[in-house]
Amino acid sequence: GEGAGEARISGDGRELENRRNKLQGIMSDFPPKPSPPPAVSGQARSGEGGALGFSSDVFIMDAVGGGDMNLGELADLTVANDNDLSIDMQDNREDFKKTWNPRFTLRSHFDAIRALTFHPSQAVLLTASEDGTLKLWNLNKAMHSKKNAALDVEPIYTFRAHSGSVLSLTTSEDGESCFSGGLDGTVRCWKMPDLNVDPYDNYDPGVQSSVLEGHEDSVWGLTYSAVHHRLASCSADATIRIWDPQNSSPCVSVFNKEKEHGTPTSVAFVTSDPNQVVVSFDSGETLLYDLNTEQSVTALETQSKDGSELINRVVSHPTEPVSITAHENRTIRFLDNKTGKAVHSMVAHLDAVTCLTTDPKGTYLVSGSHDCSVRLWMLDNRTCVQEITAHRKKHDEAIHDVAFHPSQPFIASAGADALAKIFV
Length: 424
Description:
Elements lengths: L1 H27 L31 H5 L6 H6 L2 H16 L7 E6 L5 E6 L5 E6 L3 E6 H5 L11 E6 L5 E6 L5 E6 L4 E5 L16 E5 L6 E7 L4 E6 L4 E4 L7 E5 L8 E6 L6 E6 L4 E5 L5 E5 L10 E6 L5 E6 L3 E6 L5 E6 L5 E6 L5 E6 L3 E6 L5 E6 L9 E6 L6 E5 L3 E5 L1
Antiparallel strand pairs: 1-28, 2-3, 3-4, 4-5, 6-7, 7-8, 8-9, 10-11, 11-12, 12-13, 14-15, 15-16, 16-17, 18-19, 19-20, 20-21, 22-23, 23-24, 24-25, 26-27, 27-28
């Protein structure tokens, strides 16, 4: 009598566990939902955005309840369906239309992360923060760690020299050097430390190699040209400067000295013509400058010059003579460098678009916004193929930067919440 009752109870428990595991397996194959799951009372919001983690003491139906999915449909999913789902995913990967999922959350900065960039060849990320530091993260270690990797990424190195926030960041094409721009008006050059450095070793002062001085205000944008081995910076002092970091008198040229176009907000070397840089301004203008003549060559079409079209970021299309701009008014615009005309304009987010990046093949555009989302677009037809809720708002700001790894399948986002997220 009693024994049979106990057996039945423990059997139910096992069945419940099996069902829970199966349901979690099924759910992990769904693309991440645009908004994080609602908090279950007495339980912190599970995961960070896309990952659904359930604590054992909350019945799984509660955690899913309130979502968009009808449990009736979920209950009918069988193991066979689960396999079909994973086969579909593999087929999609062949088409390079994979679904990106959050893999690592990098916690160590004390304040908003303003910029991030990947090492050209290694699974290594650099972040720059308003806390005045840069940090180096080795994702290889985390990828191969047996522990719960999501909780276990520590920076392997912290760079300290800026007084005040670090706002911009870029690396050389060989990954041997990196460069940072700050609120203090300096551009600092760093030697990349050994990627297997022990985080608890003594600080090596030889890592900082030189300081590029000349700007009189915050350095908002920084980019490196592998073709010319030159660095371009733009600053709140209204100038754009081209530097040769190896040279003892490093500043090669200065654009917009008379502040004729307002204050630059972003700068990028033009991929299709390495002798040009494209610069966006707070007036809403976008200009192409020639590095040889030091003159502006083309003014790309603007919708207005009263500053209502403030451009937060400009990037160069990786394969075509096109500049892509991210605007405060929620739009992304595509501009033809040859004709200067706008080819396409789209409302891309629910709040200001703060940052853009493309993958090296020219397949994807990734945008980040203060609406807390990272969006993935196909560059050819400019359609949104995925939206990931990545960060939480702080002081009405959410995402400051996004990066695509040049040679490995990683996307990273930098948050005002002091976190960096890695998607795979």
